[in-house]
Amino acid sequence: MRSPFPAARIRRALPTGRRAIAASVAVALLAAATVWAVWPDRPGFRTESAMLTVRSGPDGAEPVDLDTTLYLPRDASSGRKVPAVLLAHGFGGTKNSVRTDAEDLADRGYAVLTWTARGFGRSGGQIHLDSPDHEVRDAQRLLDWLADRPEIRTDAAGDPRVGVVGGSYGGALALLLAAQDQRVDAIVPMITWNDLSRSFLPESSGGEPTEGVFKSGWAGIFFGGGGSVGSGPAGISGNTEEAPEGAPAPGPPSPAPGQGPGTAPGAPTGGGGADPACGRFAADVCAAYLRIAATGRADQDAVDLLRRSSPAGVLGRIEAPTLLVQGAADTLFPLGEADANARGIAANGTPVRVAWFNGGHDGGAGPLTDSDRVKFLTAQWLDHYVAGDGDAPGDTFTFSRIAGFDAMDRGLVATGYRTADYPGLGGDSRREVTLAGPVQRVANPPAGNPAAISSVPFAGSLSSLLSGVAGDIPGQHARFESEPLGTAVDIVGSPTVQIRAASAVGEVVLFAKLYDVDQEGGATLPSGLIAPIRLTGLPASIDAAQPVTVTLPAIVHRVEAGHRLRLVLATSDQAYTTPIAPNVHTVAIGDTPLSLPTVDSDLIPTEAVLWRWVLVGLLATIVVGLVVLVAVLRLRHRRQDTSVHPEYADTPLAVRHLRKEYADGFVAVSEVDFEVHPGQVVGLLGPNGAGKTTTLRVLMGLTQPTAGEIYVFGHRLVPGSPVLSRIGSLVEGPGFLPHLSGLKNLQAYWRATGRPEADAHFEQALEIAGLGSSVHRRVGKYSHGMRQRLAIAQAMLGLPELLVLDEPTDGLDPPQIAEMRRVLQRYATDGRAVLVSSHLLAEVEQTCTHAVVVNKGRIVASGPVEEIVGDSPSVLFEVSDPSAARGVLDALDGVRVLDDADGHLVVDTNGTARSEVVAELVRAGIGVDRVVPRRRLEDAFLALVGENSRGSGDR
Question: Which CATH number fits domain 648-867: 3.40.1010.10, 3.30.750.200, 3.40.50.300, 3.40.50.2300?
Fold first, then answer.
């Protein structure tokens, strides 16, 4: 576009020297305005990073440098003070692990202090596993520092208004800090522990940690990485330590290649004289681990050390309102840890709320729907108890269950539920299920190898992948199963079961697993959770063994109706340390049934759920509209075609002057006219592209003809015509559901017809299919031939009066083809009729009573098979010199020599008398041994359509 201002006038208006300056200023202002317009919203916070030296330790005099970052809302000042959040990271992480969560909280108006815990990253000191004298006192000194900041709101001098949020390692710190320092106003501990000794040395029959079974897999992850001085334990990073997306929680990012998690390049290593076996772990922690790892058992000193770093002993001192968030996919700290913490804190009268989600150390943040719920609960808790905004959140219990996949992003979707009161691991009620199985002997493998694999740290349940491979080792486990459940059951909490065990050595280590087994035998172990058991003082005989109650891990899992429950007692598991000496033990089920906890709950309405209902309503409207449209069309057709053509009333099929032309002008069928009568098996023949399949598709209403009529028992055939119920068909392959068995596919198909089940004649159809016991297998596992036989059985359901089959022998082996021949012949002898399209001419000749030959969209011959074969002009000559005879015959006008697989001469005489042909051969000195008519359908077919005939390209 031309400027409205003449260039000459602009040049005259500015002196030459100032013109460039003015232009530059204009360009700079324009660029600044453009950048301001497109630049993303500036963050609503500022950050300050520093190395803070705090003094802690048993005497409070030990100095340690902590790497910190403070996130301050941009408008925070001494005149506008803001509440604070102390945000702790997970084990092996750094302050950077929780940066995103810190930014979210800062945007919400909180001052957020993050730091790298002692022993990790750039911070100094050694790892004491959240010791009250070390990590907890470090956090107290950070509270002191916050109280001195002019931007932080305080309740009194030296008392900041503060909440503490953290997950796993950071979650335990939140609990221990709240118990040790009453300045904490609210806490949100996530995926953390109650008693660290029981977490790493669990015993599910009620034994003490000194009798527990060592969780060596997870412990090795912690201490194995700690052996590299200067880095945190490898692997305790990434999504496993992060709370749901957007929720304040711990979780360092995955380390860069060659760099331990939480270790910055060039960071000081610290722990100069540390034991290389434990890296930056404190000496007492390292020694306790080495003793346990070497023996698989814990002494009391080790248990006492771990309990000093556990909230279990100090829960009664926590007065800060507590939101406990725990993951259902967590083999490190399962749901029972949060339950123990909740009971201990609530006993003191402190407000407590419990929330379970489908994530954890093995499940990461869980589905986005769960992330949103946890994020909302966390913000609600902090806003009320720390910021002082909003109503009290209450103490409702929330949990969720995987509902499926999101249709948009294919991610998992979890449905949330809530109940007014937290029911604990026992649920609101219990459902009992009887397990059965004989007394069984199980072997403990020498040195614990090979071991079953139920889970892998951070990977969750592998049962679906390892089923039949390493999930349960043969000879090392016993199974006890229930009958199929009559109704579905939603398990929410810890199932319990009784077992009995006997051993010549008086002691046994077992791992109890509760599988959900579907109708096909597929077994699912929810989240890979198992219950380790160590039983001592056992008798040698199972008859003298007393029942022991085992509490299985808490789960949230729906067992569908028809599924079975399977209890497995295994002697080994890759995640745990088991006895080294090989032994054989005896196990049996107890006297009481398996007890399953259930919870009466309400669905949590969410935006996604509301949109789902809107979508369901829209789909329902569309479906109703389609149903109405189909009904109207059917009524129209019925009004138009109520009469019966008297000429064809007793004729199963009459095709009159059929033509099918497509929109692009292609003519697939130009003139087809034939009938199928009761008792006949009619073969529809023709080369590829002749129009056979198009004819069948028109016949079954899959496409509409351009011209012509089709009558079935005198009724003009139209889409939706009731007379279609008298036709069974297999055209263009069946549409089976792969996850259902063959029998259930047939049953579902028949139910869709709306006809009584007694009319289906399933027994006859299954006999025809000849699938045997395979009819109870999933169709997805069928071979092509098996699917074809099932499709033919489906076409014969209800014993229709007219059967239409397109290439029914496709995929069948010779014995099956022979059986299919007999089936079709028997089917027609009862007064019914069969129309079959096939390219196997020998089979048509042996099976069919009549044939219709189509070529280039037209019928070139029809009638009884013997008549069509009899019309063949081909003759078989057996001669003394075939080569010389071929030369003689080739010289005769109209005579054509055809190839024959046996080396004989097949001659198409084309009207020339056979005697004349024989005379010519004899005159040439060629001996003629035998002359017989060539009476094969193949010869007649070739004579009718030509050897090189090609169809019109049937669609």
Answer: 3.40.50.300
Q: What is the mean pLDDT of residues 415-423?
A: 91
Q: What is the C-alpha separation between 245 and 949, in angstroms, rounded? A: 67
3-class DSSP state for residue 238? Answer: helix
User: What's the CATH code, domain 429-602?
Assistant: 2.60.120.260
Angle between helices 882-890 and 914-923 (to 10 degrees): 120
CA distance 356 to 190: 10
The token pair at 595 is: 């007890």
Written as six digits, the tokens of 914 are 């056979």
Find tokens 């860069």 and name the residue: 256
- Residue 623: burial class (beta carbons within 10 Å; 0-12, 13-18, 19+): exposed
* pLDDT classification of 399: cutoffs 50, 70, 90: very high
Q: Which residues, in sequence order, are CB contacts of 558 under 8 Å at separation 6+?
A: 401, 488, 489, 490, 491
Q: Per-residue pLDDT for 326 more than 60?
A: yes
Mean pLDDT of the chain: 82
Q: Is residue 317 pLDDT above 50, yes or no?
A: yes
For 328, what's the count of Cα atoms within 13 Å in the CB-facing half-sphere?
26
pLDDT at 936 over 90: no
State pLDDT tens for residues 438-457.
999 999 999 888 888 888 77
In this structure, what token pair is assigned to residue 74?
């941009």
Q: Specify whether the CB–CB gap between 430 and 602 falls below 8 A.
A: no
Provide the 3-class DSSP secondary structure of residue 685: strand
Show the tokens assigned to 97. 């692990």
What is the tens place of the pLDDT at every residue in 8-43?
Answer: 333 333 344 444 434 443 434 334 333 333 334 446
What does the radius of gyration of the chain's CA atoms come to, in whole angstroms? 41
Q: What is the DSSP string of 104-170?
A: HHHHTT-EEEEEEPTTSTT--S-B-SS-TTTHHHHHHHHHHHHHH-TTB-EEETTEE-EEEEEETHH
Which among 729, 400, 702 is positioned nearest to 557, based on CA atoms?
400
- Percent of the chain's residues with pLDDT above 70: 81
* Structure confidence by residue, pLDDT tens digits, 739-789: 888 889 888 888 887 888 888 888 887 887 777 888 888 988 888 888 888
Confidence check: pLDDT of 321 > 60: yes
Percentage, residues of the chain above pLDDT 90: 45
Query: Shortest CA distance to 662 belongs to which of 297, 301, 952?
Result: 952
Half-sphere exposure of 664 (CA within 13 A, CB side): 3
Look up the CATH architecture of domain 873-934. Answer: 2-Layer Sandwich (3.30)
Q: What is the pTM of this model?
A: 0.61
SS3 788: helix
Q: What is 179-215 written as a DSSP string?
A: HH-TT--EEEEES--S-HHHHHS--TTS--GGGSPP-
Q: Which CATH superfamily is domain 45-260+283-419 in?
A: Alpha/Beta hydrolase fold, catalytic domain (3.40.50.1820)
Q: Of 863, 881, 834, nearest to 944 (Cα)?
A: 863
Give the three-state DSSP class for 815: helix
DSSP 722: G
Gap between the Cα atoms of 235 and 252, Å rounded: 10
